[in-house]
Design goal:
2,3-Dihydroxybiphenyl 1,2-Dioxygenase, domain 1, four-stranded mixed sheet, 2 helices, globular
Length: about 120
Amino acid sequence: MRMDHTTLQTNHLEETKDFFCEVLELHAGDRPPFDFPGYWLYNQIDEHPIIHLIGTEKKVGNDTGTLHHLAYLGDPDRYDEFDTRISAMDCVQNRRVVPGSGIRQIFVTGPHNIFVELNFPEAT
């Protein structure tokens, strides 16, 4: 069993797409011809759509409910690249190192207060 994808509903479709494409280096790709707007955002590793976005005109609240955050594992050799790119973004962000493990973390908050955690193990 592995995580297949996360689906998010948003009334800020383009802004949300741009956020995930920038933070996670995803890109919009093929999507079935549903009768509602949206995007499937693909990763660069195995070209799998890991984020599905559904656009809606109704207001979507800023409270993420029981969902606290989304976490992703990054290539340790690319931490500096991600850090530089995300530092330039106009969004709430934080960095820390997990005590005892050396894992470097970047936390960034996007549209609808979506909280994303990026983990980068120590390079070997």
